[in-house]
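Why does residue order matter? Because the sequence determines the fold. Keep that principle in mind as you read this record.
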Amino acid sequence: MKKWLLSSLLACGLTFGFAANAMAEIAVGIVDMMGAIEQTESNGVLKKLKSETETRQNKLKASEKKVLAFQQEVKESASVLSEEKLREKAQEYQQMMLELQKEMQTYEQEMLEMRGKLLGEVQKKMTSIASDIAKEKKLDLVLERNEGGVVYYKESFDITAELVKRYKAK
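Structure:
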């Protein structure tokens, strides 16, 4: 039994020793992809997205104002309208609300697609540049700061500034 216990302890010690050596040899880099995009595309893709968002929000506000004005009009004239006219107005109001909801859903879907397409292209380029940096620095692993659950890292691990510099150069 003593032999078995001694063998087990020796095996565990060797295993942990190898694991510690392997961990010591891993070179890691950290990148803030959204931060890099904000630094490089504030007058490009991000500006275009912001402009398109504002345009569409203004259209939605105009549609919403129409619906609210119609609702107010019906409220004010409700006492003089017949029941049949009130039902017609109620159906018209419901139709306007359905159209507004459909317009909002369409807007959200289109904006998600546009954002994915525009930012996807930028991220693809940045990922390629980050890969080049990792290869040059002989990094084994590069983590995205915001997506990878990174809580703490040494500033020397951060390759974001180099990524921004190279992206702007291209």
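The beta strands are 28-31, 141-144.
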